[in-house]
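Quick one: structure for this chain?
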Amino acid sequence: MTGSGDKQKTLLSVFSTFAVGGPQVRFAQIANHFGRRYRHVVAAMDNVFDCAAQLKPNLDVQLLSLEFHKGKTFDNRRRFRKLLESIRPDCLVTNNWGTIEWGFANWPHLVRHIHIEDGFGPEEVDRQLPRRALTRRIVLCGSTIVVPSRQLQLMATQVWKLNCQRVLYVPNGVDCARFSKSGIEPLVARDGTPTIGTVAALRREKNLSRLLDAFRMIREGRSCRLVIAGDGPERSALETHANNLGLANDVVFTGYTRDTERVYSGIDVFMLSSDTEQMPTSVLEAMAAGLPIVSTSVGDVAAMVAQENSSFVVPKEATALARAATKLLEDDKLRLSVGRANQVRVATEFAQDRMIATYGSLFDGAPQVARH
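Got it. Here's what it folds into:
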């Protein structure tokens, strides 16, 4: 809450989309925690605002529709500059590459700027595009850059060549109590069938076809189930792929669910099959729920999980994922002990209170020291 002598700060937060995803859910966590301490103006480049449903009704929030023309950089810059001059936020907060033109619009310096970089789309899975690296170097040179992973921290300082004192490592955090409490009703009812699950936006870079291929191998010779929670443009293709693999009766597509704790309470092993990630919130949530993680070796995942879980972070191959998951499904004692170790790890290192306090300090303009 804002004290009687405090001026409510206005934050203009810009997203490529305000559909439900990791950065958007993190924003909702932070905004809900601080209540009316800030006035929020939220802009989405695609004018999709589905994640607004996760914001508490008592917040001071304006959803700002944009006129945006892809490829018309200078027209967009002029239009966004006028909006910045009109709104005059205390801080402009941009999220990922898709909002970089707002950083351009803010130059020369008009308002304080924080840029949060969570990762990359499929076009930058294997390498950084030189034009984008150069643009980030120029546009963000006077901004504060926040990254949730060590790999991104290295990328920002070594590839984009940004001042290391301006690049802040702020790991994502989760509400551990929400996911660890007992008595949560599973989204997919338990019937004794060993169950693998994932929570993901159904997009190309998540490579959920790899997950389906791995599950087909796991299912050979045993009864098991796969739960895929989430929605997105790849859903139809994934359902077709599951049918072609003969998995129609063993794969449950739940669609989007806000109550992800109900997904985790109904599964035995969490699996991530992505081509690119940095610090996926779904992994932290699954750890808080006491689950073992089987994941492709992407981003900071190997450093996020407990040491006992490290051998289950594997190359980007369906066969490797299948072997890791099978080992856990066949050994109840191992599966439970790895899950418990993950639960301790996330509570110790990635609780949401620390993340929220750091963002509050940043939004208020307090000096920050880069974490190395």
